[in-house]
């Protein structure tokens, strides 16, 4: 048999425990090449550079429109 709680926890005590479980927003930095926001220590999604080096070359973006039938 597992241990059971002896007394009901108050709202304050439960809230103190739950207060440590919070979501943090990611820290963003600016890309030195294109000045767009990006995650630190990761490639820039807009220009493809990481540490002043081209890591990913992006091809021309084409939009696909829906064809009515």
UniProtKB/TrEMBL annotation:
Pfam families: Ribosomal_L32p (PF01783). GO terms for molecular function: structural constituent of ribosome. Keywords: Ribonucleoprotein, Ribosomal protein. The keyword Ribosomal protein applies. It comes from Candidatus Woykebacteria bacterium RBG_19FT_COMBO_43_10. GO terms for biological process: translation. GO terms for cellular component: large ribosomal subunit. Residues 1-21 are annotated as: Disordered. Residues 1-20 have a biased composition (Basic residues). Belongs to the bacterial ribosomal protein bL32 family. Signal peptide: none annotated. This is Large ribosomal subunit protein bL32. HAMAP family: Ribosomal_bL32 (MF_00340).
